[in-house]
Design a protein that fits this description.
Strand content of chain B: over 45%
Number of strands of chain A: 12
Structural class of chain A: mainly beta
Order of helices and strands of chain B: EEEEEEEEEEE
Strand content of chain A: over 45%
Shape of chain A: globular
Helix content of chain B: under 10%
Distance between the termini of chain A: 41 Å
Largest sheet of chain A: 6 strands, mixed
Distance between the termini of chain B: 33 Å
Helix content of chain A: under 10%
Number of helices of chain A: 0
Largest interface: A-B, 23 and 26 residues
Largest sheet of chain B: 7 strands, mixed
Oligomer: heterodimer
Order of helices and strands of chain A: EEEEEEEEEEEE
Number of strands of chain B: 11
């Protein structure tokens, strides 16, 4: 069965520090890969996605992620974290079942940023 | 509006009551998804529509849950005889190539 694992439930970093959020998936073929951010009281916002091509993808708000097929990973990175980045981050995997692109989600990583 | 709109934003229901949650997708979006997000969890897939056709309802937890999208636009998720375990945020997303999410409806069953 398809699954998504985000090993870190909660991470705290200092403002200006670098950030890496981990995501591993289990799926037989190359899936579609997404990172979403959810701030309190807000809807899920897409940060970036990988469908094919260059395995290093750039997203909004200075985020990037790298798809590593050999490790079944799609880790999210940011070189310098801002206080406004504090939020819940979700990795999601999509796959085509016909025209159905439903997403399988990780449990999320809660990011806190110290001033 | 420009985004996915869900109403109500908050709903408190007494156990056993029926509820209806509405989703207004982005105009022209073919795909529409419903997800359930329990507290501290990631979203869980409930059901998927392509236009008015419900192509996948494998995530609906019981026959108390019913979703429709009769004209291929607005969708309604109905929960009959609500139970406490139904308490969650219900998220709607619409998509062509990229999914856009509404802010969700927080359902609390007391």
């Amino acid at each position: 069965a398809q699954s998504v694992t985000q090993p870190d439930i909660h991470i705290t970093v200092s403002e200006g520090a670098s950030l890496e959020l981990r995501c591993n998936y289990s799926y037989g073929a190359t899936p579609y890969l997404f990172w979403y951010v959810q701030s309190p009281g807000q809807g899920l916002q897409l940060l970036l996605k990988y469908f094919s091509g260059d395995t290093l993808v750039q997203g909004i708000k200075g985020f990037e992620a790298e798809f590593k097929r050999s490790q079944s990973s799609f880790n999210l990175r940011k070189p310098s974290v801002h206080w406004s980045d504090a939020a819940e981050y979700f990795c999601a995997v999509g796959f085509n079942a016909g025209n159905n692109r439903k997403l399988i989600w990780g449990l999320g990583t809660s990011l806190a940023v110290n001033p | 509006g420009a985004g996915v709109s869900q109403s109500p934003r908050y709903k408190v229901a007494k156990r056993g009551q029926d509820v209806a949650l509405r989703c207004d997708p982005i105009s022209g979006h073919v795909s529409l998804f419903w997800y359930q997000q329990a507290l501290g969890q990631g979203p869980e897939f409930l059901t998927y529509f392509q236009n008015e056709a419900q192509l996948d309802k494998s995530g609906l937890p019981s026959d108390r849950f019913f979703a429709e999208r009769p004209e291929g636009s607005v969708s309604t998720l109905k929960i009959q005889r609500t139970q406490q375990e139904d308490s969650a945020v219900y998220l709607c997303a619409s998509a062509n190539t990229e999914a856009f999410f509404g802010q969700g409806t927080r359902l609390t069953v007391v």
